[in-house]
Amino acid sequence: xxxxxxxLGQNVNVTAPxxxxxxxxxxxxxIHVTVTDxxxxxxxxxxxxxxxxxxxxxxxxxxxxxxxxPATVTAMPYNIDWCDDTGRNNRAGGSGxxxxxxxxxxxxxxxxxxxxx
Length: 117
Known about the structure:
Blueprint: E1 5-7, E2 11-16, E3 30-36, E4 42-49, E5 56-61, E6 69-77, E7 110-116
Parallel strand pairs: 1-7
Antiparallel strand pairs: 2-5, 3-4, 3-6, 6-7
């Protein structure tokens, strides 16, 4: 995410490179981006195209109604259930032996954006 500090109305870029684990999201894959401001209000809730390997670039304008202070920015594949309770990828057939599942992080990625007036 760049920049990590932005004023109200300023552009912020959220990007991710292609994953090296062949996630196979599909040709119509989307990324779900949310921004929750320092007061706890969800000020952005959007989806944008993502490639089959998970790479994307999404640019948003910091909403002028955002509270100043630390905001959380999250980006997760949209409408895809790919983790089970053990942290294993339940979508792919495994990359090694038959039935082998690859460990995956099911934690929601969060970045902090400092919003300034």
